Amino acid sequence: MHQIDLPLSAGYDEMLDAAQSVRPHYREFFDWLNAQTPAMLAQRRREAELLFHRVGITFSVHGDESGNERLIPFDTIPRIIPAQEWAHLEAGLRQRTQALNMFLHDIYHDQNILKAKKIPAEQVLVNAQFQAAMCGINLPHQIYAHIAGIDVIRHSDGEYYVLEDNLRVPSGVSYMLENRKMMMRLFPELFGRHAVAPVEHYPSALLSTLRQSSLEDNPTVVVMTPGHFNSAYFEHAFLAQQMGVELVEGRDLFVKDLRVYMRTTAGPKQVDVIYRRLDDVFLDPLVLRADSMLGVPGLLAAYRAGGVVLANAIGTGVADDKSIYPYVPDMIRFYLDEEPLLRNVPTWQCRHQDELGHVLTHLDELVVKEVHGAGGYGMLIGPKASRAEIEEFRERLKANPANYIAQPTLSLSTCPTFVDEGIAPRHLDLRPFVLSGNTVRIVPGGLARVALQKGSLVVNSSQGGGTKDAWILEA
């Protein structure tokens, strides 16, 4: 029998309540877990690592000059969410993604939200992610973010908060799918004891969403990758294979008469939808970054003419920039005339002098992030930082305050996790994936990321985090 440690702090634990009683939706799993031996669980973890190596589920670490690819640590203890909680999360994610798509259409057309002064115009129009070339382009169904990955956390108050919106090229869904496959292989008996909502249909839902984005009757869809040196190449190849579509690089495509074609052994084939997994600046060397060897010359002209659909749209990144994040609740109220169902984390914008003063005074209490940062880089976690790190970051803030936002250090919820010393609570978040086409579809669950170091709040795989299977229990 396993001895399970108590929560790290007074924060919210997903399995145990404040009285250290097992929450109702975890009782069945808790009983099963306590009946297992440490040796059996350790053996299952070794099996998972071996199988993931065989499949090739690896990633490369930003800044690692060795070029070695690593295995993302996989935890065999799932995060479990009851049906009623998921229903609330799902409704909030639908609402938020709808408002973000409406915002993107608006700022590239009438800019009503800017005229109404709900968001300062300079926050949008001079944003590095705003693409003026998109102004006036009418996209099918007015959808910009066909695929969104919304990062949510649960705070010590038990409420869910949105930590950030990922609308450019959100990644991680392949790990969600492979984690589920691994759990069903290692612990089939658990799925007989729990009514877990399936996730295996995500590739077909993604393909359906991509096809719906085109006005063609039977559109040809491809996945466009920067190449096998990209850290997420496994996912690009995996999704193309799962959807039954071609995986292409820029050199495999060309533009003729404002249409995009793919080179094949049978001759050119028209491409109608490109699920692109590279950033805006690399897409078209004729208009964007001239030295890009990854893009397709003339792609933007074909896109502007309606000759091809890009998912996600060019210029979508302005809506997930951290300097725009504080205004998403206002977008929901402005476009939908509704109150947000999911809360934002309170945010100070260092570009404002009074808010900068507050941040500088409370640096040891706050999390400070670069507005264009990602992957947990370029940030300060005040309570975990040394005095020297805080002072160094203070100088960065003073030198370029507009490049930063700050947020309180939230107490991310914990979940039992199998670590070297046994089973112990570790902090985690959740990234559900929202597909926007003729309808909005959300596969139940998402990528559950967990910080494997005791007390750490950084869940990113590139900084030592791991992943779990996320179970949504059906009612």
From TrEMBL:
Residues 78-451 form the Circularly permuted ATP-grasp type domain. It comes from the Bacteria. Signal peptide: none annotated. PANTHER family: BLR5612 PROTEIN, SLL1039 PROTEIN. This is Circularly permuted ATP-grasp type 2 domain-containing protein. The lineage of its organism: Bacteria, Pseudomonadati, Pseudomonadota, Betaproteobacteria, Neisseriales.
